[in-house]
Structures are given as C-alpha cells and as structure tokens.
Design goal:
Chain lengths: ~200, ~375
C-alpha cells in the first residue's frame, strides 16, 4: 500500500464513520474496512473507478465532490478524507469548508509544489515542473491550484480552520511539520498530510 | 387474451385495504419463481416488473412464447444468478397476466370489472406482494430489485417493510412521477379511451378490443423509452422497403414501420384497461406525499443497503431524479451507492445487454451476499 495510505490509516481511529472523497479504486477504503472496522463510504467522479469499487463490495457514490458533498448532513462523518485532489477543484476554499461541515475532522493530503526538485525544475528548465508526484504537463494536468505545504499552512489562517496535525512524507518516511522546520519540510517533502478541524468559533 | 393454466397463482385470503378505500380479499396473485430457496431462506430476490412486464422474467414466456423481459439480467450465472438466488416475480395487481385485474369477473355483477375495478397504487401493489413472501416463509429478502415502475415498487417496498429486505436496488426510476411522465401516460390513456372499441371499458363483454388506441399508446410510450441519439443511429431517415418517398401516409420511414410493428404486437399481449390502471398507479406514485415532501422520512427506519442506478440517456427517469433518492438516503446516513451507466439506449437500457450495467448489478449483489 502507498505510504500515504499508511499515514492516513494510522491517524484514523477504529470503529469510526469515514467518507473518502475521490476514493479512486477504493484501495484505502478496502484497507480501512478490513483492518480497522471503519464504516467507510466513498465518492468518486470516474465511472470506471466506481465500478471497481462496487466489485470490491464498497459503498461508493458516483459524483463530483465540488457539487455533491452538500447532500451529507453536518458532522455526519468522524473523518472526511481528501487525497491529493484539493488542487484539482475549481474552488478549493468551498471544498475545504464542505469537508469540515460534513466531517468532524478532515484529512487533506497535498502534493507539495514547494519540493526542491519542482523549484529547480522551474528555475533551470524554465518549464512547468513534471515530477513523480506531478506527472502531467501543464496542458493536460487536472491540477488548477497547485500549492506548497507552506501555502496550505497559510491557507488555514486565511479561511480559518485549525491544523491539528501536519506530517511530511520524505522518501517514504514520515515526520512532523512545525513552525520551526516548516522551511525545510516545504523544501524536501513530496507530500503534506494535514489533519484539520473547524476553528473553535465556528 | 386467454390466461393459460400454466400460470402459478396464489389466492390471497387476507384482506387488503387499498389506498382508494376499497377492501379486497380472496384475490389471485400470479407469480413465477426461478432457482431454489435455500434452507435458511436468505437467498430470495424479489424482482419487480415495469408497466408492461409480467412475472415471466427470464427464459421462454409460456404465454407470449417470447424471451422473458429481463433475460439479459436474470438466469444461471447472470447478474441475478439463479444458481445462487431464488428469484420471485409477481404480476402486479391491476395487470393482465393472471393477477387480480380489470379483466377479471366482478363476483357481484358477474360481469368483467372493466373500469369498475378499483384504482390501484404502487403502495397497493407492494402490499399485495408481501403475501407471497409470507407464502414462501421468507422473513427477509436478500434483495428487492427492479427498473422503471419496478423501481418504484422497490422504493415503496423498502419504505413499507424496512425489516424485510437486506439490499435494495432501484433502477432508472423516481420517487415521484414527474409532470412530463404524467403527461405522457395521459396521452396513452386518451388514445385508448378515444378508440370507439373501448366501449367505456366494456369491450371484453362486447367481444371487441380497442387495439388501435392501445397500439398508439404503445407507440408513443415506446418513443419515450429510447433516446434521440439511439433512434438516429438505428433508423436515421432510412426508408422502409422503398427507394423513394411515396408522397402518402404509409410507413415511408423505417422508424414509422418499427413503431407500427411495436404497437401491433403489443395489443396481442396486453389488456387496454390494465394499461389504464397501471399507468394511473405510476402517476399516483409519490413516496414523499405521506411525509410532507421529505423523501428521507420514507426511509427513516431502513437498515438496508441501497444501490441506485441510472442511465445517461434516460430522459424519462433522468439521472437527477435517481440522484434525489441517493441524496435523501445520504441525508439520513443510510448505506447507499450510486452509479450512472453510460448508454445511448435511453430508458430501455435496463432491459438490454449493457455490460457495464449488468456487471454493476452482479458485483453489487454477489459482494453483498457474501
């Protein structure tokens, strides 16, 4: 299983109710259902992927997270997961707010555009970076709003949500991100994993 | 039309109070079964048929001598695998394949009911069907499944009997009949009643039949089961056995000839009054009515696992109406999956060989049965 999924699975408590937004072929859902007794639902935009999930016996709704999250009541899930797709939405701000409305907590993972290879790529090649985590060219990428780990931390202050836990994935190793190491993690992490909550006053 | 002896029938002794207020008892329910009920009686699937369907789901229909209406989906190793599941299908009340309907004799008047038959609803149809489960000693169905009007029965069943079904599969349907669909049904009914031979519904006792009207009703309805693109691809402007237009009103175009054929074969197997009654039941269908417009309330006691399926080119029961069911279920935290199948075959897709559809049904059922 992908290291990203392992990190997420470790954060999640067993016997909870989870919504996996953009659940893809259901790999993570299947793991959570079998190993953590988690009541997990998925939402996925691709018909082919939905079919794969059905064949695995998973409960998945074909839909677009940008429009279809509104059918879920407030706090109807313990966690809502959003793996590496925030940057692909037309309006990430609305999506984050919806995640935090539907879920008591949310886990958001971000492919880090601040990674040094990305920076060097743009600096020396002068073309839009193409890396292992960002395999597409500028003209065929689904990513509309690329951001860095640092951007996401600042985003939390701007639209007012709480980052409960932030982790960096560097060469399949997980480490904590904090204020003092943010500069370095933002340079070396391929992926940021954030456990977020509504801010207290909301 | 003769109802042959090889129709299985259960006489329901218990009283059934219909939505219209009338009470019926000692009425026949015609049904068919496929596969066998296991010892635990936990492998039964109730298949609900659509407007013009009947209990002969698959294999040869002994009355029409044609393939059953859901032969693609039901049978050994098929989506609804009769090697594994015990499939039951009941001819709806109001129908014309052996169940209590307007062509039966009214014991009071000793005459055919005709339009003296009580107006029935989807709720009545479902409340009648439950008698068959009791007959077989089935406490809980493994699944209830059906498309179109069959899907309406599926939803009604899940609402009326939440403890008696494990999985619920409504296909290409709606929780309340739209104005457009009521309009289309009304068109069909008007075609039938405008036929001189309808005789105010008493055609059977006068040995005539409103075949013209019924076939026009079928032609109009048939168009709604297809899609513009599907029609264009299949027929386009192709001419029927002629090289050029004939400047008359014969069937110049293949599509005209096709529709006329569909109309003409339909009248051999369907009763005009049944068509009136069943379309009325569809029009009256509004699962939200009892719950002040809140569909979620209709399912509030459910523990069943739902799987809703729609088709991209279905304009009769479009995806959004199917999605409304999903939304209502999600808003009460019910277990619901949903997929929209890509197909240009229109509403009829659920009856056809659409591999993505058949695969989804099979995978959902087999995974849920484990």
């Amino acid at each position: 299983m992908k290291s990203e999924f392992k990190i997420i699975a470790d954060i999640l408590k067993p016997d909870t109710r989870i919504l996996d937004v953009g659940c893809d072929d259901g790999t993570l859902m299947e793991f959570l259902k079998k190993n953590k007794n988690i009541d997990v639902r998925g939402i996925e935009i691709s018909k082919e992927k939905v079919q794969i999930c059905i064949a695995k016996g998973l409960t998945v709704i074909e839909g677009n997270a940008e429009f279809d999250l509104k059918q879920f009541p407030n706090n109807s899930f313990d966690y809502v997961l959003l793996g590496q797709t925030l940057q692909a939405f037309i309006n990430p701000e609305i999506v984050i707010k919806e995640l935090l409305r539907v879920g008591k907590k949310a886990i958001v993972t971000i492919p880090n555009f601040g990674h040094w290879k990305v920076r060097l790529n743009l600096l020396f090649q002068g073309t839009m970076p193409v890396t292992k985590t960002l395999p597409n060219k500028w003209y065929n990428t689904p990513n509309l709003h690329m951001c860095t780990i640092k951007d996401f931390v600042e985003f939390s202050k701007i639209i007012d949500f709480k980052i409960y836990k932030s982790l960096a994935l560097i060469n399949k190793k997980v480490s904590n991100i904090n204020n003092s190491n943010l500069f370095l993690k933002n340079l070396f992490a391929e992926l940021g994993v954030f456990l977020i909550e509504k801010s207290d006053e909301n | 039309m003769d109802i042959k002896e090889n129709i299985k029938t259960l006489i329901v002794k218990k009283e059934l109070k219909l939505d219209c207020g009338q009470v019926i008892n000692n009425f026949p329910l015609a049904y068919e079964t496929y596969g066998s009920l296991n010892e635990k009686k936990d492998n039964a699937i109730l298949v609900c048929h659509a407007l013009t369907g009947d209990q002969f789901v698959t294999g040869l229909n002994p009355i029409t001598k044609k393939e059953g209406w859901w032969s693609y989906a039901v049978g050994p190793k098929k989506s609804i695998d009769t090697n594994k599941y015990f499939v039951i299908c009941v001819n709806v009340v109001g129908g014309c394949m052996g169940s209590f309907g307007p062509s039966h004799i009214n014991p009071k008047t000793k005459k055919v009911y005709g339009i003296d038959f009580p107006v029935i609803t989807i709720n009545d149809i479902v409340n009648a069907q439950i008698n068959l489960l009791d007959h077989f000693g089935i406490k809980k169905l493994f699944s209830v499944i059906g498309g179109s009007m069959g899907g309406m029965q599926v939803l009604q069943f899940a609402s009326n009997f939440p403890d008696r079904v494990k999985t619920v599969v409504p296909i290409a349907c709606t929780s309340n009949h739209s104005a457009q669909n009521i309009a289309l049904n009304e068109l069909g009914r008007q075609a039938i009643t405008a036929d001189h031979n309808w005789m105010a519904g008493e055609y059977l006792s006068k040995n005539v039949a409103p075949n013209k009207g019924l076939s026009v009703a079928r032609m109009a309805a048939h168009i709604t089961y297809l899609s513009k693109r599907g029609l264009q691809e299949k027929f386009g402007r192709k001419l029927q056995e002629r090289d050029d237009l004939k400047f008359g009103f014969d069937a110049d175009f293949q599509i005209e000839s096709y529709l006329r054929y569909q109309g003409s074969v339909f009248v051999d197997r369907f009763d005009a009054n049944s068509y009136l009654y069943i379309t009325r039941a569809m029009d009256y269908f509004d699962l939200t009515k009892k719950f002040n417009g809140n569909l979620s309330e209709a399912f509030k006691n459910t523990k069943a696992k739902f799987f809703v399926i729609s088709f991209t080119s279905d304009w009769l029961y479009p995806t959004q109406e199917n999605k409304d069911i999903v939304i209502a279920l999600n808003s009460i935290g019910a277990d619901v999956g949903f997929v929209e199948i890509k197909s240009d075959k229109g509403h009829d897709s659920f009856l056809l060989d659409i591999p993505d559809f058949l695969k989804a049904v099979k995978n959902f059922l087999d995974q849920s049965y484990k």
